[in-house]
Request: fold
Amino acid sequence: MKTILSICLLLTTTCLTSAAQAKLKALIIDGQNNHAVWPKATIMMKQYLEDSGLFTVDIQRSRFTWKAGREQAFLKFAGLAETEDRPKAETDPDFAPDFAKYDVVVSNFGWGAADWPEKTQKSFENYMKNGGGLVSIHAADNSFPLWKAYNRMIGLGGWGDRTEKDGPYVYYNDKGEIVRDHSPGKGGTHGSQHEIPITVREPNHPITKGMPLHWLTTQDECYAKLRGPAEKMTILATGEDQTKADAKGRHEPMLMTIQFGKGRVFHNTLGHDTPALEGVAFITTFLRGTEWAATGKVTQTIPDDFPTRDKATSRPFKLRD
Ligand code: ZN
Reply:
């Protein structure tokens, strides 16, 4: 009897412990981004992840922030040590997250971010090679143009003097064929912000499974003419810019996955500013992609308010007390 009781106690403890440990550990990294919304974007993403019930979230930030001004009020919610907003992005020599503690890392760095210390870059490369997870949001694919391994992780990038030396342009044409174009030219452009029509190209991938084949984003930038190594990259969904004449017939990668060693990368080009970050399209793809990058699976269902071909949907953000 005593033995049975002990087993029961042991099982209960194990069950309770595993329930407490069941949440995935996410780390959002930020601090330098030409998009002034970034401090708010980090808090929005943190809240989305926590509210899904699947994640615990930490934030780690470059001590020398850049362009934090507009959403300064959101910085304090991170519960981090004091930061200093600098007129120019500068390398924080102490930026060294313990990546191995996390199932997935979300990058909210952006264009113009200063390189991380070399040791931190190497530590992140090892984390990813050994099976880590990375989520690249919007301008995170503008950052670190000279860091080769990072560019292999994100597959495609833009701006930062990216050209044919960095890899081909990759997009779908009107016939539904993938084009890899090595012709010379700058990487990265976008038209005016608008509701972007999206076409799902891989409907059986865990991230896109159950979505309608066509849906609309909220007001966002349609990143275009990105270029990069594009190795082991799967394009899940494309978007066609409706504001530029020369964008017709170019269906640009908007959602991608990339394999880097044993690591999984989810690359989401959406998320320019508050209206984009409040879009159900952004929230859903971000949450599903982050779970997939962490585990290789998606357990979440597609929400009832997911957009359709003709109607974008949005959830006004409310900061949790
Ligand atoms: Zn943008």
Summary: The pocket of zinc ion is lined by residues 35, 138-139, 221, 272 (CB under 6 Å). The two ends are 49 Å apart (CA to CA). The first strand starts at residue 24 and ends at 32.
